[in-house]
Amino acid sequence: MRATLICAALMAASLSAGLTGCAGVCADVRASPTASPMQGEHSYALARSSLQDGNPDHTEYEALIRTELGKYGFADVTQERAHYLLSIAYDTRLAAVGVGSADCAQEGCSSPGETTFALFGRRAYKHSLTLRFFEQSNGHEVYKVSVESQDPLHAIPYLVKSALAQFPFADHPDWRVELRADGAGGMPQVVSVKPVQP
User: Fold this and answer.
1) End-to-end CA separation in angstroms for the chain
2) What is the widest separation between alpha-carbon atoms in the chain?
3) Which of 54, 109, 183, 194 could form a disulfide with 24 if both were Cys (CB 3.0 to 4.6 A apart)?
4) How is the beta sheet containing 189-195 ordered, strand by strand?
5) Nearest partner of 30 among 168, 191, 182, judged by Cα
6) Is the bond leading into 198 cis (omega within 30 degrees of zero)?
7) How confident is the model at residue 170 (pLDDT cuts 50, 70, 90)?
8) How many whole angstroms separate alpha carbon 11 and alpha carbon 17?
């Protein structure tokens, strides 16, 4: 009986470790730049849908995106003065629950497996963010970046930081961004940005 209890405890500890992931959080980024992206004046206006107006999550996304784009010299201005229109889309949905992965040892962060049920009452969520820049003068999309991450405790800062870890992402469409939490409670810190080979 004692051996059975020890075995069950070890299995529970192992599954719990797989669920909590490693020290870092990974995000997968896909960028669709044009041949010469973002060469115009570095001003933009946010294009909101009626559902986004007054939404607290959207307000947080906008504030963090303004801060990160400001680091690249981009200014949020009135629509009449903006060179670009910026569309922000995001989503959260239930995802598979992982029980560990080889990626964790190689990349230092979690990449959940394919289990589709909740263990120990914990559900996993997949979060995504897409930013699209359009030339205001002609409506042409000049840059698009999408990011996905699974189940950081507070996804919004991780998604924004990953989407703008490099701006623009160039020379390769797919990237893996590894981040770690800021001990002071600020924006997560980028640990590495690497192209993902096909």
Assistant:
1) 50
2) 74
3) 109
4) 75-76, 43-47, 84-95, 124-135, 141-150, 25-31, 174-180, 189-195
5) 168
6) no
7) confident
8) 10
